[in-house]
Amino acid sequence: MAETHSLQDMRQQAAVAAKVFLQRDYTNGTVCQFQTKFPSELETRIEKQQFEETLRMLNNLYAEAEKLGSQSYIEGCLACLTAYTVFLCMETHYEKVLKKVAKYIQEQNDKIYAPRGLLLTDPIERGLRVIEVTIFEDRSLTR
Amino acid sequence: MKNCEYQQIDPRTLPTPTPTPTPTPHHGPDGDRPEEPRGRPRRKWHVFPGKNRFYCDGRIMVARQSGVLPLTLGLILVTSGLFFIFDCPFLVKHLTSCIPVIGGFLFVFVVITLLQTSFTDPGILPRATPDEASDIEKQIDNTGNTSYRPPPRTKEVVINQQVVKLKYCFTCKMFRPPRTSHCSLCDNCVERFDHHCPWVGNCVGKRNYRFFYTFIVSLSFLTAFIFGCVTTHLALRAQGGKGLVFALQESPGSAVELVICFFSVWSILGLSGFHTYLVASNLTTNEDIKGSWSGKSGEDVTNPYSQRNIFVNCCSVLCGPMPPSLIDRRGFLPADESVQTAAADIELPTLATKSEINVCTQGTKGLLESATLPPLLSTSCPQGKPPTDPTGNFDPSPEISTSCGGARHTHHSRGRASTPRHSKTRSKKSKRAALQIANPSFDVPVSPTSPDAGPSSTARGHEGASFSHLH
Predict the structure, then answer these.
(1) Angle between the N-to-C axes of helices B130-140 and B398-436, in degrees from 0 to 180, rounded to the nearest 10
(2) How far apart are CA A29 and CA B164, in angstroms?
(3) What is the number of other CB atoms lying within 10 angstroms of the CB of residue B241?
(4) I need a labelling partner for B373 at 20 to 30 A (CA). Which of B207, B277, B311, B329 fits?
């Protein structure tokens, strides 16, 4: 029964048991990276490897967004020459990657986390400070 | 620095968990929210807790105190206007018609970058949600009891072999990321905080530093260009034994320009030089003033953020990827919060709508990051700003205020206590500015080769004091 929970059903019916917050990892400076330490509260809900894989993918996506490469330099120089008005017309590389992140999180939630009674919140909704994992009550126990 | 009163979060007062609405991606369209809120749907900028003002339905934001932004704009417009009216015709006739073209280009560049600096979100970090804040407090206790205690003031991380202390912000209820500072004027934590510039009426931080730098560099070119042109103009007129006085009488506007440019070119050039040094070493004004990485304490400290290469530093600061705005000002509030805040709105005073029509016609960065689609652009300002609308810097919804209220109250009072001193420092400096149009927030660390080292050092003392309020 738990496996057939849709995301919407779960959100509307289940009660939140706890929330776990994964903080930022600043060892490489101010780039956006999250700590990959597996929280103990999730031990009973999801495999460590699966969770770390999700986190690794997210960290890679953010690293790609903030990468200093030729594309970002070209974008930056072009923007400077046009007094940055080009930002009004064009989606920046960072924003494109954020869309990818949102899609990835949605997909992970649908396939992996919702069936286990978990929900990942997109970090952009928390100001890129934390990854919030909401743990819903395990309904299979209450039935 | 005295401890601010800490309002501990009582876990029983945390809001009862409501099912979270479908999280929309950051740039999702605004119109397809599943739930219909009772009453008018409210946007997040209405309940923004910092001291900012919003125009054009959240597309444009400025600090609460506009500082001397009107003066800055006025000076630029007046000087350029006089230049085009009085000097250009003469110079076109006697020299070349490139002059107004170059002048026009520089003028447009300066005004656009100034407006972008003023109206862009500098990199404000949204405050921690009550759940996050209580989680931080809970984590500290490791003895097995889940009690809630005030977290320690600092936390250490090692960044590139340097130990960096992260401070806990009592207002925003989170440990500040590295290089982030809390601006007491705007009451926000700002990422890569450089300084709060009254001349542009906004903080200068991660997102608008490049606009600010481009503004001051182009302004120094513009000022130097106008100064040069005016001097040439007067020299040409005074030729043939007619004398300077005659020339000035023929072209009185040039006299005004000469005075303004003469006094401002040195300070603006100095400021540009200083910021070029900061960019090349990947430092912020805040760090430079505090001497965070200069090894004053005798230890071997180096800047952990610097790439050790001037070119790479410049590229990463000025041409790096443009980070998004984290505060999602144009997002809609969830239905329950909209209803709760509606009650809080009633006592809010009517705020003067500040020529937002003019303001809205300027294109700014804010337009892009707020998921504006063309249809939304056309529903612009007047609709978004009925007179009774608050601009989000008063009481946020009650559930936010349970956790932030106490700390916020004390911070408001601290903010107010510090603001008079800020404004005193600033008014002293603006008096000096009237004489010499220096940049008051930083006529300090003008480049090391600046001739006026004396006043700089006293001003440095001032700035050191005022920065202590920036936590």
Answers:
(1) 100
(2) 10
(3) 6
(4) B207
Residues 6+ apart with CB under 8 A from A110: A7
pLDDT digits (tens, 9 = 90+) for A49-69: 999 999 999 999 999 988 888
- Contact check, Cβ <8 Å, A126/B19: no
Give the contacts of B132 (CB within 8 A, at least 6 positions apart). A21, A126, A129, A130, A132, B173, B174
Separation CA B345–CA A53 (nearest Å): 45
Q: Which of residues 28-47 of A touch B (CB under 8 A)?
A: 28-30
Model confidence pLDDT, tens digit, residues B90-115: 888 888 888 999 999 999 999 999 99
pTM above 0.90, yes or no: no
- How many contacts does A have with B, using Cβ atoms within 8 A? 148
Instruction: Specify whether the CB–CB gap between A32 and A62 falls below 8 A.
Output: yes
| Candidates B172, B183, B197, B360; catalytic one | B197
Tell me if B218 sits within 8 A of B109, measured CB to CB: yes
Nearest to B235 by CA among B95, B363, B405: B95
Q: What is the mean pLDDT of chain B?
A: 70
Are the beta carbons of B361 and B37 closer than 8 angstroms?
no
* Cβ proximity of A136 and A121 under 8 Å: no
Residue A81: count of CB within 10 angstroms of its CB: 10
Sign of the CA dihedral running B436, B439, B442, B448: negative
CA distance B445 to B427: 19
